[in-house]
Structure formats: structure tokens, C-alpha cells
Amino acid sequence: MGKTDGAKARKGEGFAIGPVLLPSNVLLAPMSGVTDAPFRRIVEGFGLGLGYSEMVSSRELACNSEDAVRRLVRTDPSRPLAVQIAGRDEGIMVRAARIAAERGADIIDINLGCPARRVTGGMAGAALMREPARAAGLIRAVARAVDIPVTVKMRLGWDETSKNAPEIALAAQEAGARMICVHARTRQQFYKGAADWGFLRKVRAVINVPLVVNGDILGIDEAKDALAQSGADGVMLGRGVLGRPWLPMQVAMALHDGIRLDDPPLDEQRQTVIGHYRAIIAHYGAQTGVKCARKHLAAYLEAAGEKFRFDITKWRRLVCRSNDADEVAALISRFYECLGVERAA
Ligand SMILES: Cc1cc2nc3c(=O)[nH]c(=O)nc-3n(C[C@H](O)[C@H](O)[C@H](O)COP(=O)(O)O)c2cc1C
Fold this sequence. Notes:
By secondary structure, the chain is of the alpha/beta class. The chain has helices at residues 37-46, 58-62, 66-70, 90-102, 117-120, 132-145, 165-175, 200-204, 220-230, 247-257, 266-284, 286-308, 313-321, 325-344; strands at residues 16-17, 20-21, 26-28, 51-52, 56-57, 81-86, 107-112, 150-155, 177-183, 211-214, 234-237. It has 2 domains: 16-257, Aldolase class I (TIM Barrel, Alpha-Beta Barrel), CATH 3.20.20.70; 266-344. Helix content is 46%, strand content 13%. The longest helix has 23 residues, at 286-308. Bound molecules: flavin mononucleotide. Flavin mononucleotide (FMN) is lined by residues 29-34, 54-55, 84, 111, 113-114, 153, 183, 214-217, 237-240.
């Protein structure tokens, strides 16, 4: 493991990103449409090293758009929040970063990894990995403009023939980035193929700020393998946390204390899901909230169904088709009751 500029990470212990000390080295990935304030609050409640906002368009944030500002909502003021911004215009990125900092972000993360055509088509996100000088210029400008740490999340490179994460990571560090996270796939892979954690050794060899490995870390064993193969200081978990908000805490406990905690009891899971659902309704209002909740509710049902080998087909249809907020809450309760009865039988 290379030297880091913060507290040195060991197993599940946290590390420092500039002045921000993380309680553990297990991070929740930024995910548009997923890591809103209600979800972050649930995951943080179980235990988390660092939560990220959904990606915020710098252009929208610079105009104070309602949707962009809602993405900055803090959950627990005692826990660090990283706000991720995307864009390619220096002036607009600087304005957006300042707004995020004024609204309480602890860290500004710059997106160099989004593969979506609507983002790369505008030459932002992962497209910036094809323009190292421009990417470094953006990072430098933002780092000079705010007095909170700036970090970067990137991919291995644009495609198989241009895996320049080491070069970009070094340029980012020289431009002022205080932590680098790498999703161990190229942009052209989108989410296909296996994440190449071992490639991060090449990044580790050239930077001394903390390095975080991301991609396909779905549980404790993958987290251990990803850390061992990459030499990174921490892990970032994305899709695996959907429907399992306790996963980052389980991973941190396993890395730090060597304890493998079981999932919470079914009744606690029911309370968690209902609490999350009610928070979504409060955050977005009933009409939008019912729709926003569906991906989470489907993931909770799937996770429970998989664990207990319980057929959730009927339940998913009922829960995900209803537009009635109270009916959905009642269905969730009934699902967990039936699951409990089934298990006890
Ligand atoms: C629904 C969804 C939304 C995502 N949104 C973002 C985003 O806003 N910013 C970002 O940097 N990455 C985003 N990602 C990528 C994740 O942060 C992460 O890099 C990727 O999912 C790989 O990690 P995983 O295998 O643990 O899911 C998103 C991924 C998913 C599945």
C-alpha cells in the first residue's frame, strides 16, 4: 500500500480526505436516481464511511435549479457528505462547486466516469478522460475556488486501448485532488464485463492521496479481494447496497473487526423499508414519491426473496403498480408478515 496523506487506512478503518476524517473506509457510490437524501439517511443509519449525492449537473446547479438543489440536501450534519458535480466548463464548475460548498458539502467530487451518452456527448463525465489537460484544469480551478477538499471519480480510461487512469490520477493529484476513486472498468464497457481491480495497482504506484476501488463489490469477500488486488485504501459500494442498506456496515465490521454480521431480523427490515418509503414520500411528495420508491422497494423485495427463497413475483407486481401511497405502505407490511409466517412454518 502506498503512502497516503491522511490517516493511514488499515482494514476497515477510515482515512482522512484533507481535514475530513471518514469513520470507515467503506463508501457509498454516487448513483443518480438512487443516492438521494432518504436513501443516504437509511444507509448512514446503519453505518457508512462517506455518502455521495447523486451527480449534479454543474450547469443546473449554477442556475440554482430546484432539482439540482434538492440533490444537495444533507442528512445528518455530523456525517460527511460529498457532492458530485459534472461538467466541462471551468467557470460553471467553479460556480457550482461554490454553491455546493455554501450549502454545506464537505467534499466536492468531480465526475470523470459517467458513461451516459447525454453526458459524454457534451464531452463531460468519462469523455474528460480523453482530454487530460482539460480535466486537470477543471480540477485545479475547482480546488482553488473552494476551501473544502476536492476529489475525483473516474474509470480505467475511455476504452481498452486507452486505459490512462494512472496518468489522469497523477494529474488530478497535482491539480489538487485529495482522493481518487476508480470504477475499474473503461467507459466503453459501461457496466459490462468484470471490474479489473488489479489495474488499480498502476494508479496506486503513482499517487499518494487515498485511493478507493469501485465496481462489482457486492459483499465482504469481494471487498477483501478488491482491496488486496488494488492496494486501495477503501472500497466504494454501489448497486449491491440497493435493497441492502446495511451492507456497508457489514463490510466495515468484517474488514475492521473480523465480524460477519447477519442481516437485520425481518421485523427490523420491515421497519427500515417502511421508514425509507415514508421518507421518500416526504422528500418528493406522494405523487412523485410513489414512483421514485419503486426501484428501492423492488430491490428490498428481491433481496429478501433471494435470501429466504421466497417468490416475490406477485408482491413486486402489486407494490410497483400501485399509485396509492398508503396502499403501498400496507402492502410492504403484509409482505414482511407473510415472509415471517412462511419462514416460521
Ligand atoms: C443507477 C446508477 C446510477 C449511477 N449514477 C452515477 C452518478 O451519478 N455518478 C457516478 O459517478 N457514478 C454513477 N454510477 C456508477 C456508480 O457510482 C458505480 O461506479 C458503478 O455502479 C460500479 O459500482 P457497483 O458495481 O458497486 O455498482 C451509477 C450507477 C448506477 C447503477
